[in-house]
Amino acid sequence: MEGEDENRPASRTGAVMDAIRRRIASRALAPGERLPSIRAFAAAMGVSPSTVVEAYDRLAAEGLIRARPGSGFYVAGALPLALAAAQPPVERAVDPFWVSRQSLDATPDMLRPGCGWLPADWMPGAAIRRATRALLRTDDALLADYGATRGAPALRRLLARQFAAEGLEASPDQILLAASGTQAIDLVCRFLLRPGDTVVIDDPCYFNFQALLRAHRVQVVGVPYTAEGPDVARFAEALAAHRPRLYVTNSALHNPTGASLSARVAHRVLTAAAAHDVKIVEDDIFADFEPEPSPRLAVLDGLSRVVRIGSFSKTLSASIRCGYIAARPDWIEGLIDLQVATNFGGPSPLAAGIVLGTLSDGSYRKHLDALRGRLARRRRDVAALLGGLGIRAVTEPRGGFYLWCRLPDGRDGAAVARQAMREKLVLAPGNVFSVTQTAADMMRFNVAQMGDPAIPDIIGRALRAAEAPA
Amino acid sequence: MEGEDENRPASRTGAVMDAIRRRIASRALAPGERLPSIRAFAAAMGVSPSTVVEAYDRLAAEGLIRARPGSGFYVAGALPLALAAAQPPVERAVDPFWVSRQSLDATPDMLRPGCGWLPADWMPGAAIRRATRALLRTDDALLADYGATRGAPALRRLLARQFAAEGLEASPDQILLAASGTQAIDLVCRFLLRPGDTVVIDDPCYFNFQALLRAHRVQVVGVPYTAEGPDVARFAEALAAHRPRLYVTNSALHNPTGASLSARVAHRVLTAAAAHDVKIVEDDIFADFEPEPSPRLAVLDGLSRVVRIGSFSKTLSASIRCGYIAARPDWIEGLIDLQVATNFGGPSPLAAGIVLGTLSDGSYRKHLDALRGRLARRRRDVAALLGGLGIRAVTEPRGGFYLWCRLPDGRDGAAVARQAMREKLVLAPGNVFSVTQTAADMMRFNVAQMGDPAIPDIIGRALRAAEAPA
């Protein structure tokens, strides 16, 4: 079969398709009418019957004609006008969804220093292609079947070994693969939370935590985040005052601040959580950007009340969706039921296989080594560039691609972001990260998305155009 | 880069890995100790430095050693005992999760007439490989980036054209791609339901609807399903009595009965739903198995109160996860926010690209044509085979792979399924589909999974061993 279609001159198939399209457009063939038989039309067009078959197939896939098995091809109904009508973009408040939707749906002419991922050409395309091609040489089951409920066993074994090397003992059966880190957190929230519960988050924190927790209909309490983790006194107060069920955080290269948890703070957070029986989701998706592992709640706690979340969206590919949960065995059983109920089975076995391939052949490690160096240089250069605009990075992250910065003269980040959007530049204003709305003059910059030389001027103009503070 | 690793003799890399493994096992290299330098060990082993680099990389990926950038490789901590300990399988009640988990986690020696999908070798492996290889020749963005929030535009345009050909007018912007049909339904439930709401389902219906709705903490009311759809009188009564917010159903090739909705019933269902302002989820994942489209609620209603759900898991691949939602524009906006919040972005752009490839080049249509004929023959043969065991199909489906059957002498399906499981045969007993538990003597058979000649004898023994009715 392979290559069968490629060897047929595309122009001949296209000519047959065009001929049919013209007849339909001119109503020489009306909706519902039967198309010429394959043999007759091949003779009329001077092409082989297989060329006509392919042309009809493609037109059927487009919906212009329809196949009726055993009866031939027929002209489909008229296309709805709606197909042609583009919808105007939605004007939205600068809320936790603002950055996500502006970034994900950006057109190719937009620049995205506000987004939360690396440019595609920073990702290991060659390694992904190699791993995918290797999978295509394996059996049909991997390409066609549902996976096991926990997800690919070989990838879970590899992750368990990596955790062990880090001092975290977990059996591969304590790891559940999911479609993404976010979906993994969502599953844990579904398992641990009831509507009306209270959840503690960092202030500031990843804006999508607020969006996600809103979907779970829970109350959210913010605790100030410092350069070495949450403010431990305020954390303990919040636990005593609000009796939360859960604390959701990033420990390493915290989003948006780039800070990392210290051992001292980690220990105190766990002690307070134990005193009030609070569970913890430690979202560790930036782990692989660290030069050396910093303290982790999951490692100290040993997956007793802490759940580890990971994914490969930031370091390998966001197109190949694969995240994971590491948790207590009894929780994993409950999480599997929930994942079966809400997604039928785990993540794509093909996706897990591609991830496994790049992790096993060393290409992932090599990519990370190069990436860490490149990002360190870029953080330094972008901090200098922003400094020239009066924008000051308030932390010096040990890895990753974020700089958490203060705007000059108390400028309002949302106003600056709205101005920048007029010049097709997506920014991430501070208050989308702050549940208490106390980061109005802050902004998160993605250093890897700052390469375009037009960016500093646009930011400068947006700063000037944004209303001056009262 | 391509092929670089493949050209290096695997045996040499393996020999280096084995040498390191032996030293670690014998404690000649203790946890935390630095490994020999690459150059020194290459000389000692008589191999090239690149072979040692690869061996170290692979050992690092396994977690046995760790790379410290700029410093070399170190032996990781001891492996936890838990890695070796296999957990015993969980003994579960025969509930809505029973079939899912037994089927998804079946070992290769198990037979699965109870499962809900085709064998891998019935799926179009060559077409999937061709579509995937074509994508690997495109740019890095598709392999590495998040997709747009609605999912791949080209696939949504193609679906909109197919819907138009069927008489369903929908703009591509009214289509939202999701990771699977189940995830799509879950998203719609999140959008439309509040805890404590009531939802109407068919009795019997796909068992996972019950599991999914349980996760949403809603009440469920069953309406008897007939050979042409829900019992319309009972449906109207249920709407008046329980004031449900939602009705969840399959219209074409209903799971498990294989029945299809008639135009008469479809009209009455919509009229009753309008009178009580009930929304409808029409899960259409078996649509492509039909020889000709049967009446659809979404087409009659025009996506006003009906949401169409589709996926390619049953007809193309369950490994390449891609489903979709077609709904009103204002609902789609809300669903996008929810999908961003709970899964960050849509389904894998790679997955959507593979689906688009097989749909565009005609290979999907050819596969379906062949599949329909093969399944028709198989349904006939399996019905005869089951008849010989006293098991009678109660409907004659016009497509698909299910037969909904009555067991002889009022045998209890759950008891038969438990007996069959002892011989590694997964069955789908009737009551897992019935919210009122009124299908005890029924069983759903997947005709495509009945090819193994051992199956009739195992079923016969299970029938005899299952306790006779009181």
Automatic annotation (TrEMBL), chains A, B:
Q: Which organism is it from?
A: Aureimonas endophytica
Task: Return the similarity comment.
Answer: In the C-terminal section; belongs to the class-I pyridoxal-phosphate-dependent aminotransferase family.
One Pfam family this sequence matches:
GntR
Kindly provide the name given to this protein in its UniProt entry.
Answer: Transcriptional regulator
Q: Does the keyword Transcription regulation apply?
A: yes
- Name any one GO molecular function: DNA-binding transcription factor activity
Residue ranges of the HTH gntR-type domain?
10-78
* Alphabetical UniProt keywords: DNA-binding, Pyridoxal phosphate, Transcription, Transcription regulation
Q: Which InterPro entries match?
A: Aminotransferase_I/II_large, HTH_trans_reg/aminotransferase, PyrdxlP-dep_Trfase, PyrdxlP-dep_Trfase_major, Tscrpt_reg_HTH_GntR, WH-like_DNA-bd_sf, WH_DNA-bd_sf
Q: Which domain of life is it from?
A: Bacteria
Using the record for this protein, list the coiled-coil segments as residue ranges, or answer none.
Answer: none
